[in-house]
Structure formats: C-alpha cells, structure tokens
Amino acid sequence: MAKIKIGINGFGRIGRTVARVALQRDDIELVAINDPFLAADRMSYMFKYDSVHGQWKHGELKVKDESTLLLSDKAVKVYDSSCLFTLPNEIPWEDDGAEFVVESSGVNSEQERASRHLTAGAKKVIISAPSDEFPMFVVGVNEKYNTPDLSIVSNASCTTYCLAPPAKVIHDKFGIVEGLMTTVHSVTATQRTVDSPLMKDWRGSRAAGRNIIPTSTGAAEGVGKVLPALNGKLTGMAFRVPTVDVSSQEESEGNLKGILGYIDDDLVSTDFVSNHRGIPHFQEFRPFQNIVQGLNEKDYAPDLKVVSNASGAINCLAPLAKVIHEKFGIVEGGVRKVVDAHCQKDWRIGRAAGRNIIPSSNTARNNIDLDLSAVGKVLPALDGKMKGMAFCIPTVDVSVVDLTVRLEKQATYEEINNASCSAANCRTESEGSLKGILGYTDDDVVSTDFLGDNRSSIFDAKAGIALNDNFVKLVSWYDNEWAYSYGYN
What we know:
By secondary structure, the protein is an alpha/beta fold. The chain is 21% helix and 23% strand. It has 11 helices and 21 strands. It has helices at 13-22, 40-48, 93-96, 111-114, 116-119, 158-174, 219-226, 312-328, 368-378, 413-425, 482-486, and strands at residues 4-9, 28-34, 61-65, 68-71, 74-79, 100-103, 124-127, 152-154, 179-186, 213-216, 234-241, 289-290, 307-308, 330-339, 358-359, 386-392, 399-407, 438-441, 457-460, 465-468, 471-478. It has an 8-stranded mixed sheet, covered by helices on one side. Helix 6 (158-174) packs across helix 7 and helix 8 (312-328) crosses helix 10. The longest helix has 17 residues, at 158-174. It is elongated, with a radius of gyration of 25 Å.
C-alpha cells in the first residue's frame, strides 16, 4: 500500500508532535515542512529535544543542508517561506508530492488563506484548530462523514477530542439533556512566563507558571458540530494550570476502541503524556456543629465546647450557594475544586505535586464528599442536593471552586451577577451580613491576585457561564490557607 505523503505548515507544538507521530507510522511519509521562524538547524534542535515528550530516539536526525533534514536517511524538504503569513500558495507542496497538508500555523484557518494550499498542489488541508467555516471531525465520533470531496477540514481541538467520545457514549446510551464542562488545561505556547501584555487576553498576560487562569473554550460547542444531536446542549470554560502537557474521560470494543480509554487505577496527568491533594484543612467532624461565617454563626452558643470551622472550600462555597439559592433556588448542583493540596490515604496524592494534575479521590480521608455534606449542614435547604470532586494542581496557595447548578427560578447570568454583587456589598443582618465574607470582582483576575485575601469567597463575574436561564456554572476564588485561618478570628 502506498504511503500517504504529508506536509506540515507551522512547526510549533502541534506541528512537531504531528511529525513525531507520522515518522513512527508505516503508512505516512513526511515530505516537507514550512516555518518562517525556523531555519533547518533550529528545526532539527526543536524536534530532537522536547521538554515534554523527551529526546527523539526513533532514528538518526541530521541537517543535510539549509533546505533539507535527514530523518533516518529520509530527506525532508524544509522551507522558511514568509508565506506562512501571506501567500500559502507559494509553498511548493506539489513539487514535494505532499498530498495532505497539516495547517498548524494558527494563522491560515479561514477559507481564503487555507485554500491557497490547494492552489500550491495539496489535495487536502487539515486545520489544527476548530473552525466555523469547515467541517470538523473527531476520530471515533464522526470521521465517516469525512469524504474525499471535502478538500479542507478541521481536526477540532484537543479538548473537543477528549470530550466528544465520552459525550457520544453517554448520549447514545442514556441521552444528554444539557451539560456544562470545565477543562483543567495545561499551559500553552501563547501564555506568558512572567506578567507581560498579551493583546486582548488580560488574564492570559499573567505568569503561567504561578497561576490558575480562567479562560474561555469553544470545545463544548465544538462537540455540537461533530455530534449534531448535542448542538446547543453543551457549553464550557477552562482553567489553565501550571503543567506542561495533558489536560483533564469504554467502550473497549467497537468504533471507539483505541480512542476512548478506560482506567480504574489511581493515575495522574503525567501518566498520559505521549499516550496514543483535597485541600489542607481541618476535618469536618460529623458529631460537632459546623459554623460558617455569614451563614449560621448565630447557631454558635456558649454551651458548645467543640465546633468545626468546616473547611476552606465550604467557607468559599456556602456563602455563594446561599445567595443563589435564596434568590433563584438551587434544584441540584455539582462542584469542582481546582486546588493546591495534600491528602492522606489517596494513592494519587503520592505522585509528584509539581508536575501533575491530580484528581482527588472521594475515598480519601479529607475528601470533597465531606465538604459538600457540610454545605447541607450549614444550609439545610441544600442537604443532599450537591456533589463534587477536586483537581489538585501545582500552585502553592489559592484555590477556585466552580459551582454548576440547576435553578428553580429562571435567571439571566446578569441577574446572578447583580445578586452576588449586592450580597457582597450588603451591610445589615437582614440583608444577609455577607459583606467581608462573600466578595465580588468583575476584573480579569487570576489566582495570585487573592493571596492574603481575608474574604471566604470571591465571586468572579467574568469567569462563569450560563447554558440557559436555568443551568449555570459559577466561579469563586479563595485563599485556602489565609481566608480559612482568618475565619477562626
């Protein structure tokens, strides 16, 4: 069988990783690479040494001349054409026999620019980004519709690739009514190593190695494009965290084998590199009264010799839940914590904290199930209505909660923001006395902006999302050390 000949336009993280995969396949031949910023010797260096996937060890890599790389004695043509940004039709794909072009430059995703690759001789262009103009495909979900007559297609995004297969399984078997997703995502090349300006993304201009950074993602909407039955039923958001690769779903047989995986081991993010802690807090003691400032401190009585200050997460979550429930009614909800942490009796927590995204086990001693049972103790109206989980990530302090709830009363996201802002600024007992406990911000903040913040919970108006007027995801920050300790005073 003849090999498929491919060219790569844009030799960044995706371009180089595609090359690594292609060079280990018997049915694909890499014939040409174009990148205006990388001469052949720099291409060779960046390809050979990779901080995530390791040194290239699948054959000798040499620079033959300024326009040719030798990969295991196979010549790969190298171009540094500035047409990466101007005229892709100037790259001589036809001369090199490149039938398929992987467009991974990030700047040629529109019809006018992407079609120039076809003018240059390519038969098909695959864009390494979501697209509003071209059909999107996810292997195992809808690739059967990728017919030969489609000359330009989108390979969606890495998060859509993760989300779509399990969404397909769940929808096919049980039906999905609606959903909100959060991806806990490793850093990307566009982020900053230190605080420095980044065009339109103010939060993205903050130091990637030190912050939890909320950002937008179109991955959930992308699922609706590859699974039309879910169109309009999903939306989502992202937290960028300080890991360099792997972000945070079997049908072990059938068309998803090798695409959708299944594990029941205690694995963490680095276990999935190159794959084809709860919060430190005082334990919630069930026999004792849980007291959360701004909610039920009036229940504290002198005859209570021992009480619980609940946990940092509950002191963050409960004030916000109180406001939303009293204004709009919470039917049910789920919580995700993105935290710095340690924990006992959890095998995953034994893994390197500085390198991993670590899901918190619900069997661990200080787990989020206990946290959420404490919400029901300080807000009895929510008892049994909430459940959650945590991801522990490599930051040393400040955590964030996302609260996903179904509301009894319809409310626009603006109305929810207004209610939270009002509660954060109220002064009297009759108004709820949450001033100084529940905070409110509509600035483009990231996690380190809350170091040393006394408030139990700071509602982030810009970070949350709403699928509709009954189903919302709300985001609130807390310094899990300082704010929680401050609550004792």
